[in-house]
Amino acid sequence: MCDRPSGNAPVFSIVLPTYNRPELLRRAISSVCRQTFQDFELIVVDDGSTVPCCSGFAEPGDPRIRLIRNPSNIGVAGARNVGIEAARGTYISFLDDDDEYRSSFLSSTYACLKDTPASTGLSWCSVEYIRYAQEPAGTQRTEVREFPTQYEDECALFRKFLSIGTGFGVTIKASCLKKVGGFNAKLKVESDTDFFFRILSDGFVPVIVSGVHVVLHDHPMARLQSPATLAERIRACEGFLRQYSEFMDKYPPVRTDFLHYLASLKQRSKSNGGASEAAPLCAARDNSERLRFPGGWLAAIVRGWKPKAPSRMT
């Protein structure tokens, strides 16, 4: 992250990676420009697009919009890190080019974060899904995923946090990012999961912004993250179980949730021979969306899990 120059640094830096989706990018940028809270900079990171992507900004003369072009495609985690390095704001928010903010996003996030203690590292919010991929041509289905703002204990809060993705209006304090670092660009899948585990392992606590402030578009187009084989996801998750075993020892239900998610990946892999899955699978980690397994299978996995000595990924 850049050192903040006195007097002219924005409150928010919004990092928006894009790749070969100019028509979606325009919608995302427009949603930022419509914010009722206007003290922001928008950092668009063109991750090596092979088609013109960044010529249709909603406000072409707006000095708050900055464009960074990567000479080649480095992946969404690396592109987010490029934006983080350029960010000057007190808070860094993330938006993918196929999603959009409601006009209340920044104002509600600021009200939630501004008086929090240093131990509060970040926030997220409830979202509206607009689903196209599974619907007949020309139709769509809308769903809302809402989160309570209070939980019975830290473990319940952490379990819910680990069920989301970066697209859920995740906004992190620059001070937190300075300590935990950015995304692991070596991970082609599950980089947000790794990022969240590191935040929690370093002692930071998330808060939830009240209300629905982000719209996620579930569409059949190409994703920012390349379609990953289930085998890649399984390897990444097995690595997390070793790497963050100390954190999971402290919060055993988190390990149980994660083992259930891993079991769901293995079941899917067995069913389709490890074929690619383009859509994010973070929702499968949510308690309310668990797959059903043959009796006793998950219990046997949990009982049989013996973590190896933790080793941090580099």
Task: Provide a compact summary of the structure.
By secondary structure, this protein is α/β, with parallel strands linked by helices.
Which percent band covers the strand fraction? 15-25%
CATH architecture of the largest domain: Alpha-Beta Complex
Strand element count? 11
Q: If you average the pLDDT, what whole number results?
A: 84
The CATH H-level superfamily of the largest domain is Spore Coat Polysaccharide Biosynthesis Protein SpsA, Chain A
From the alpha-carbon coordinates, what is the Rg to the nearest angstrom? 19 Å
- Backbone structural class: alpha/beta
General description of the model:
This protein is α/β, with parallel strands linked by helices. The protein has 2 domains: 12-218, Spore Coat Polysaccharide Biosynthesis Protein SpsA, Chain A (Alpha-Beta Complex); 228-304, no CATH class. 34% of the residues lie in helices and 21% in strands. It has helices at 22-33, 76-86, 105-113, 154-161, 174-180, 191-201, 230-243, 245-250, 252-272, 297-304, and strands spanning 12-18, 40-47, 65-70, 91-94, 100-101, 120-131, 141-145, 171-173, 205-218, 228-229, 276-277. Strands 1, 2, 3, 4, 5, 6, 7, 8 and 9 form a 9-stranded mixed β-sheet that branches. β1, α1 (22-33) and β2 (40-47) form a beta-alpha-beta unit. α7 runs antiparallel to α9 (252-272). It starts with 11 loop residues before the first strand and ends in a 10-residue tail after the last helix. The relative contact order is 0.14. Residues 278-303 and 309-314 have low confidence and may be disordered.
